[in-house]
Write a sequence for this structure.
């Protein structure tokens, strides 16, 4: 790991760029997927279309999207905006389904009780539906977050500087330590963000804290 | 009520996340990729580089030399191949780029007959579009080549590309994927030397593949230190399929006069041995381009 | 829509379907690598997942390992392994990379399939006198099949999309026109290849989706298509 210690500033600055690109995409993806997922859940007809489109988006290879987007939208491929938009699209593709599934998983009986007690539709959505859908949505958010941080590395192939540089540069110069350092840092960042999300979930959705044991520990079969 | 606590906490969390993202934005490294609106009219010089470690080192040298001379510099490295960065160079988004005379000339005029370093440089200056200018070329060159291992050369008695025609077994050529479309690639081999080869897009593992025997001939750049260290043989090119390709700074024509004094001083000192040494420091000594550039500028008396 | 017409022109030109780098050959290479990766990953992940689902133990470790595996960028892992194994073993390096990519979804499919089974059914089977093996083979496996196939589906899609990077280290596949097009900025190649990958992925997804619906034992078919997964694993995808 000698190389890593000698090049900490480089790794650090690349990590900051990487974090910035990923976090913006994750937040934007989350914010966009909430209304989309809600629409898919609420309007049966929209559901099929929305889920199909997001599924379709997901099948586009990342490199191709990174190259086609600039042509469609007019900014240079090498700009960070390009990468962030592409990452956001993939994040939305993952999270829309999670939002829809989460809202699906809310027990209709609970919703009915809320209405019976006097909640208006809107109040009920924010106070009952969304929180109860929370665990599934957060699970989707975690997957999307880790996936985005990992996918961002491909940006280097179109000239967007982030931790992916350590891979291509390390390959060109045959410096194994450099590639390894890149892998470790990306994975670390992903795991830290994941842990933060778990923490946030525990704080915001305390009722879902411990997974109840799904089965009683089996008494040994006779 | 729990619901309001949830809402408030949720709002705080989202705000925190957004704030982090925005804070990340504002504290971003000023030397990182600039926003696309940046142009030379703001005064900053944008130095670009190819996704090639050697080119990046040269670009880093330019950047530091300019910074030392008092210019404001932004770096946009590792963009990719010519087809990728040329539009930005031509539009002025990038101000300065280290290039290679022969390859660049063929990019603009693939029917050119210039072959020697001076001819190529002269024709390049004419071939460049109006907004671009070429500063003095360096004596250092880093051009394409057809290279084989010394064992292969001995086995088939090879000294030049023409000798490849004597080999009866099918030959595989390795190199970057775009080589398949370049005039000096397999098509050129076929039309100029009458040699047909299979092409394998070995990319960044080209030298390894050559050494491992998965390819017979490789397109290795002449400043690659591994030609010496791994005992490779660069085949002669009697028909001049490959143009001379010296390092040349391509610059936004409006700023050519401003930058010439600084960059010409760099080009003067960039000799062939010098370039190979830079590459050795990068590949073998594993130093970062920033350190290599700093040391080189100091050693050559340009950092001031 | 110039881009799209260019891409379609490129796709339909005879050149792309002949010679060494013909599209159908690349497609076969691509699918072969995907298949191999999913099969090898299944051999590792399915038994592990079933064990976890059946005994109820080891879930936390599985989730942790899956999380770690997802956090590793495939692009970087591929490059690292190529450097480590050497160029003569690039296919092995690629295989390991894609196997690691596929494991999390397969593992989750296996154990969540078993976990979703009503305890009462298992208890009944035990009460009737079935051995652990019989319970697994005759009750848990069939009932867990839909979620398992869902996991296979998810894993396959991720791998198919990610195999495009194998072209960066010259392993062929449909990523080759994308990587070459990247260097040359030939949008017809890039979009053309992307369209084919997307098409292949969609067909794969449709086939596996069909399999997933068919996988539910007849008596339960009315139920399974709408059962939401409650909270543990999202029915979502991830990629690197």
């Amino acid at each position: 790991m000698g190389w890593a210690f000698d090049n900490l500033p480089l790794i650090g600055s690349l990590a900051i760029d990487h974090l910035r690109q990923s976090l913006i995409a994750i937040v934007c993806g989350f914010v966009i997927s909430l209304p989309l997922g809600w629409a898919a859940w609420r309007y049966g007809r929209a559901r099929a279309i929305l889920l199909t489109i997001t599924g379709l988006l997901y099948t586009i290879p990342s490199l191709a999207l990174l190259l086609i987007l600039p042509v469609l939208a007019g900014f240079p491929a090498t700009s960070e905006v390009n990468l962030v938009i592409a990452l956001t699209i993939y994040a939305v593709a993952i999270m829309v389904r999670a939002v829809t599934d989460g809202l699906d998983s809310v027990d209709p009986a609970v919703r009915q009780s809320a209405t019976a007690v006097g909640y208006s539709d809107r109040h009920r959505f924010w106070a009952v539906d969304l929180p109860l859908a929370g665990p599934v949505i957060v699970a989707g958010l975690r997957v999307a977050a880790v996936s985005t941080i990992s996918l961002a590395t491909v940006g280097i192939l179109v000239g967007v500087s982030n931790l992916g540089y350590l891979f291509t540069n390390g390959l060109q110069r045959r410096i194994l330590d450099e590639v390894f350092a890149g892998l470790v840092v990306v994975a670390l960042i992903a795991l830290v963000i994941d842990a933060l999300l778990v923490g946030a979930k525990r704080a915001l959705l305390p009722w879902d804290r411990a997974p109840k044991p799904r089965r009683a520990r089996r008494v040994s079969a006779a | 009520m729990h619901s309001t606590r949830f809402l408030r906490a949720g709002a705080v969390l989202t705000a925190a996340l957004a704030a982090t993202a925005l804070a990340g934005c504002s504290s971003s490294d000023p030397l990182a990729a600039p926003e696309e609106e940046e142009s030379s009219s703001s005064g900053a010089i944008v130095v670009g580089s190819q996704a090639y470690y050697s080119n990046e080192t040269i670009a880093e040298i330019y950047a530091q030399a300019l910074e030392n001379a008092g210019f404001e510099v932004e770096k946009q490295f590792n963009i990719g191949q010519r087809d990728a960065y040329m539009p930005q160079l031509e539009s002025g988004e990038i101000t300065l780029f280290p290039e290679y005379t022969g390859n660049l000339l063929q990019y603009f005029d693939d029917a050119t007959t210039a072959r020697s370093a001076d001819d190529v440089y002269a024709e390049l200056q004419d071939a460049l579009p109006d907004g671009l200018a070429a500063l003095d070329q360096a004596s250092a060159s880093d051009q394409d080549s057809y290279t084989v291992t010394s064992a292969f050369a001995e086995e088939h008695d090879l000294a030049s590309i023409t000798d490849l025609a004597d080999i009866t077994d099918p030959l595989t050529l390795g190199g970057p994927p775009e080589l398949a479309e370049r005039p000096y690639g397999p098509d050129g081999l076929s039309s100029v030397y009458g040699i047909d080869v299979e092409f394998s897009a070995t990319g960044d593992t080209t030298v390894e593949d050559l050494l491992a025997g998965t390819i017979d001939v490789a397109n290795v750049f002449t400043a690659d230190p591994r030609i010496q260290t791994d005992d490779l043989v660069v085949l002669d090119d009697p028909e001049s399929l490959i143009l001379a390709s010296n390092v040349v700074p391509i610059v936004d024509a409006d700023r050519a006069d401003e930058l010439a004094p600084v960059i010409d001083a760099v080009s003067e000192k960039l000799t062939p041995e010098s370039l190979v040494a830079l590459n050795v420091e990068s590949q073998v000594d594993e130093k970062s381009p920033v350190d290599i550039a700093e040391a080189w500028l100091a050693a050559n008396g340009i950092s001031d | 829509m110039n881009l799209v017409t260019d891409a379609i022109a490129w796709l339909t030109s005879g050149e792309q379907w002949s010679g060494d780098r013909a599209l159908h050959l690349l497609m076969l290479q691509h699918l072969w690598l995907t298949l191999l990766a999913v099969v090898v990953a299944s051999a590792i992940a399915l038994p592990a997942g079933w064990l976890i689902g059946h005994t109820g133990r080891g879930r936390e470790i599985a989730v942790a390992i899956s999380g770690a595996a997802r956090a590793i960028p495939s692009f970087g892992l591929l490059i690292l392994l190529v450097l480590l194994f050497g160029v003569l073993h690039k296919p092995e390096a690629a295989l390991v990379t894609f196997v690691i990519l596929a494991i999390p979804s397969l593992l989750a499919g296996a154990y969540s399939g078993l976990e979703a089974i009503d305890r009462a059914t298992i208890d009944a089977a035990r009460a009737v006198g079935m051995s652990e093996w019989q319970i697994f083979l005759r009750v848990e496996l069939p009932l867990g099949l839909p979620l398992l196939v869902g996991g296979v589906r998810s894993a396959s899609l991720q791998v198919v999309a990610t195999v495009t990077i194998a072209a960066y280290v010259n392993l062929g596949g449909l990523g080759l026109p994308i990587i070459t097009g990247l260097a040359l900025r030939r949008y017809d190649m890039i979009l053309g290849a992307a369209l084919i990958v997307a098409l292949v992925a969609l067909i794969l997804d449709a086939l596996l989706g069909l399999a997933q619906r068919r996988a539910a034992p007849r008596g339960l078919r009315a139920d399974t298509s709408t059962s939401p997964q409650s909270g543990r694993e999202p029915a979502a995808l991830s990629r690197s």
Observations:
- Chain B touches chain C at residues 80-81, 83-84, 176-178, 180-181, 198-205, 208-209, 212, 214 (CB under 8 Å).
- The beta strands of chain B are 45-48, 73-76, 96-100, 132-134, 146-149, 171-174, 197-200, 217-219, 232-234, 247-252.
- The first strand of chain B starts at residue 45 and ends at 48.
- The radius of gyration of chain B is 23 Å.
